[in-house]
Specification:
By secondary structure, the protein is α+β, with helices and mostly antiparallel strands. The protein has one domain: Methylamine Dehydrogenase, Chain H. Helix content is about 15%, strand content about 35%. It has a four-stranded antiparallel sheet with strand order 1-28-27-26, with no helix packed on it. A four-stranded antiparallel sheet has the order 2-3-4-5, with no helix packed on it. The protein has a four-stranded antiparallel sheet with strand order 6-7-8-9, with no helix packed on it. A hairpin with a 3-residue loop joins β11 and β12. It is elongated and about 135 Å long.
């Protein structure tokens, strides 16, 4: 191949290897865009060594012939001083910090490992059923109460029976003679030892359940039967068929200390708030009153704080909310059928729900935001509501007559209901609170034996 052909070939290669300027520019631009920008840590670099390599050191490598012995010796000394055997100039002196995972493995895996909280099982049948013969089928009375010592009191005709939930034993406290009976109300004192018994003859008896003896009889307050009772420490509040509400100080001889007058017919519902400052009373006159303890007077009839007239039938079922002190719930009789919620500070009705049947009793769940109501015609059921949506969670059936009375166990888990069908039923409707579930085997739950009886 001659020189001309070689030159022509090399020129052809040069022409073929060239790229258009626009293509070269795009290639360089794409290359720059694909690179990560490097931000050096200047504190970790030797600028003296870097400056030498970029100036004098580079000159020696590019033109080694011009290097003199003295310059070569100087270069070697610099190499020992600046550690010239390093392959990189912009090198970290220390290891880079270990990257921190913004989502640690423990955090990401925990929700997957933790099982979803299962929905609480609500038994549809009663845990236990006891006979309650001769129970008075009267809507306006209050014949069932569960004391803080885990003893249930129930009045059957003229007799008050005590059922110990710890061991299931039953004992008779007292039988009233026919002239003064039947028993119209029962209520445990806060200590769980003393109990008040209202009678058809307008008397109220105080008993010591442990010693099984009567302490005293409160007379002279009412003129007709006492169908409702409520304790506020040492004050026993009584409501009578005469429409009067009386505060009795059980420690003193002259026990009548205040009188509330506002109802025109029988007082069938009484409940003190948890603070003991407000009293709710319901009557057969369809009225609901809120009374302020600080406004009570012993010299004259105390004026009510609120007089609420929204119900269209007797108001017996009352329950103060355990998690909101100024929230009261009330239930109306067969002509009303409504559950109403009240702000007792303002007297405003904040919600009303038509249940479709007579409301006999109301209980709040102490562990969850739930409300339990008992009803009369037509289903005679217990209904569990979710608060505040008031969505029905369950309906418990089994009674064949209206469920007149309900009482709650001290731990808040079990509910006892008594009906006109002369049965007493126990329901595990409120479940077991989280703090009670891991209880030690050495201390079994007081109602563990109920769970095994169907």
């Amino acid at each position: 191949m001659d020189a001309g052909s070689v030159n022509s070939s090399s020129s052809i290669l040069k022409v073929q290897s060239r790229r258009p300027l626009q293509e070269q520019f795009l290639h360089k631009k794409n290359s720059r865009e694909n690179l990560d920008r490097f931000i050096p840590n200047r504190s970790a670099m030797d600028f003296d060594y870097a400056h030498y390599m970029l100036t004098e050191g580079r000159k020696g490598m590019e033109n080694p012939v011009s290097s003199s012995p003295s310059r070569e010796a100087y270069r070697k000394q610099l190499a020992e001083t600046f550690n010239m055997n390093r392959s990189r100039i912009l090198a970290f002196k220390n290891k880079p910090p270990t990257p921190v995972d913004p989502f640690p493995h423990e955090m990401t895996s925990a929700p997957q490992d933790k099982p979803a909280k299962s929905r609480r099982h609500i038994p549809q049948s009663s845990e236990r059923t006891l006979d309650a013969p001769d129970i008075v089928d009267d809507y306006y009375l209050n014949l069932l109460d569960w004391g803080s010592a885990n003893v249930l009191a129930i009045a059957l005709g003229n007799t008050v029976y005590l059922w110990d939930a710890t061991n299931g034993s039953t004992s008779e406290l007292v039988t009233i003679d026919d002239e003064n009976g039947p028993v119209t109300s029962v209520s445990w004192a806060p200590d769980g030892r003393h109990i008040a018994i209202g009678l058809n003859n307008s008397d109220v008896q105080l008993w010591d359940s442990t010693a099984n003896r009567q302490l005293r009889t409160l007379r002279g307050g009412h003129r007709r039967r006492v169908g409702s009772l409520a304790w506020n420490n040492h004050i026993l509040t009584t409501g009578g068929m005469d429409g009067w509400i009386i505060n009795n100080d059980v420690r003193v001889r002259s026990h009548i200390v205040e009188i509330y007058r506002g109802h025109e017919q029988e007082v069938c519902g009484l409940k003190w708030s948890a603070s003991g400052q407000q009293l709710a009373s319901g009557g057969n006159d369809n009225l609901l009153h809120i009374w302020e303890r600080s406004m009570a007077s012993s010299n004259s009839a105390t004026q009510w704080l609120h007089r609420l007239e929204d119900h269209t039938s007797a108001v017996k079922a009352l329950a103060w909310c355990p998690f909101q002190s100024n929230l009261l719930v009330s239930g109306g009789g067969g002509g009303d059928r409504c559950i109403k919620f009240w702000n007792t500070h303002t007297g405003a009705c904040v919600n009303s729900v038509d249940t479709g049947s007579q409301v006999c009793a109301l209980l709040w769940n102490k562990n969850e935001r739930e409300l339990l109501s008992s009803h009369g015609f037509t289903q005679n059921q217990l209904t569990l509501w979710k608060y505040p949506s008031m969505v029905k969670m369950a309906e418990l059936t089994g009674h064949t007559s209206r469920v007149l009375f309900m009482a709650q166990s001290p731990d808040g888990c079990t509910v006892a209901s008594a009906a006109g069908d002369e049965t007493l039923r126990f329901w595990n409707v409120f479940g077991v609170p989280e703090v009670v579930k891991p209880a030690s085997k050495a201390k079994p739950e007081p109602f563990a034996h109920l769970n095994r009886i169907r």
